[in-house]
Amino acid sequence: MKVDGTSDTHITMLGILDELFAALARRGVRCCHWKSNSHLAAAARGETDLDLLVDRARADAFRQVAADLGFKSVRAAPGKHYPGVENHLGYDGGTGRLVHLHVHYDLVLGQQHVKDHRLPIEEHVLASVTQLDGVPVPAPELELIILALRAVLKYRLRDAFKDAFGIGPSGIPGPIRDEAAWLLGRTSPHAVRTTLAELPPIVPAGWVMEIIGRLTSPRTRGLWLLVLRERVRVALRPMRRVSRTGATARYLLALWRKRARRTGIATKRRMTLHDGGTTIGIVGSDGAGKTTLIAALDEWLAWRLDVRTLYMGIPPEPSGLRWFLKRVTRLARAAERRIDGTGGRDVVRRALREVGDVSLGLRRVDEARRRLARHRQGLRHAARGAVVLFDRYPLPAASVQGRSMDGARLKQEIAPPWSPPVAWLMRRERGLYDRVTPPRHLLALNVTPEQSLRRKPDHDPVGIAAKTAAIRTLASDDTGLVVVDADQPADRVLAEVKARIWTWL
After folding, report:
1. Which of 101, 120, 436, 475 has its CA 20 to 30 A from that of 88?
2. For domain 276-504, which CATH number applies: 3.50.30.20, 3.40.50.300, 1.20.1250.20, 3.40.50.10170?
3. Are the beta carbons of 345 and 282 closer than 8 angstroms?
4. pTM (2 decimals)?
């Protein structure tokens, strides 16, 4: 059976989808994957979302089945919420993939970015369901009729001009033409006409057959297709959920959002969890694989969810004011040592020490301020529903060579007695870190010093051993820290972390 237009192999479906369809069948919940079935194989593998039409009368049963399998209800991205449509996100443990169910209780279709019409034939579609390699799908005649109406309602004035004058590619996208041809290969024009006669007289059958002919013909005749679009809009007016003016306004707003993202004015917003966003801190010693892991987690979650990654460490190469303060500290320390060696006067030595201490204190306070700012930025993202991943995090309870891990350090770096300016800077640094509240979840990558040094041979062995010991101590203190063995291969670490994070969402 030719499933995806490229091969004759059967669909290989994710385990969680196998369980979903089996459970729905046991509960008597009618549903089907109602569009783009020429590419069903990709959806079954979790590479694209699944568009499921579900019997509205069994909506509660569907939600219960999905929840029992670990699916989570999610909000659509801004501008992409439509009545009668909801979203569920699941996690397939066997592959580590996220699965997006785009669940329709109403068949909504229409202008791109708007979906301004409902097609009231849900019962006919559900009554026609057949199985395509274990996936319930509608009869190809019905799917072709819906595809024709979807395509013509998306057809734009500029598409008509392109087709009328042969400018560039066709106004009907190639994938839609391919899908129409694939569906027509599974049925016949006679069967489509018969099905149209059985449907409510919403759109005249002749118009639908003409649209299908345009989709499967090398010559589109754009202006005629534009006329058909207007006729279909008039026929569907009783099922219209947005006025033409409102639909145009929403379409233009969607275009503006796309342009704003392209120019960097705005960032792309994705779906968010109904239970709200969360913050996750990921810590570990050097060589534990934090950077690689967090990049993989960001890619995994950002496929559908709104996710933000914030680095809470210190950039290895300071710039601007921090670069200047670091140079001042080094010069002051070097000059102090030189005077010590030449028997210089105490007053000069104390002045140089004060300059070095203050410049160091200013740099540490600036680092604390920046970390606090990133922490607050993460809280704002989480409040809007995003999943926030913190790369490193200040841990006051984890002591590394006498100071807290990624936290306040001036008290250990500057020996007493402290001058009033230096003492004030210490209090300021401590106060800033005190305002960095713990993340909702904290995960540590625990790697042995030997493995860490194999991965990072240029790092300080003493410092690596100290960080490793600090994390072990913190984990044994029942702080709620989740520890993952990072000596394992990277793919196993990633799988374990994904499973843990999914339970937190």
Report:
1. 120
2. 3.40.50.300
3. no
4. 0.86
